[in-house]
Amino acid sequence: MKKYFSTPRLTLINTGHLEGISFLLLLFIAMPLKYMWDMPRAVTLVGSIHGILFIAFVSVLWDAKRKIPLSMKTGIICFLLSIIPFGTFFLGRAVKG
């Protein structure tokens, strides 16, 4: 596990991937369970996990902006990728290295 978070760049990319997976689970599994099969607890559980991972991603992004360093433009692109479905899977391209 250590090698996946050994540098600020890898920490940012891998935290982004975890956040992206939680976002997709929320959109494509939990939301349909809530609205099609009347199971609102799925959104509560997955939404909470996604919220924690989103906050973690933003804090890692903030830290990476200082340590790598990332330009303001790259930081904004990384943040925007985090609010677009499948966006965080392109973080590696945004923070080339």
**Portion in strands:** under 5%
Structural class: mainly alpha
Q: Calculate the mean pLDDT score and round it.
A: 93
Strands, count: 0
How are helices and strands ordered from N to C?
A: HHHH
Describe the structure.
It is built from four helices and no strands. It is mostly helical and 97 residues long. It has one domain (8-94). The longest helix is centred in the N-terminal third of the chain and has 30 residues, at 8-37. The model has no long low-confidence stretch (mean pLDDT 93).
Please write out the topology.
Blueprint: H1 8-37, H2 40-67, H3 72-82, H4 91-94
Helix pairs in contact: 1-2, 2-3
Question: What characteristics describe this protein?
Answer:
97 residues, mainly alpha, 75% helix, single chain, 4 helices
Structure summary:
The chain is mostly helical and 97 residues long.
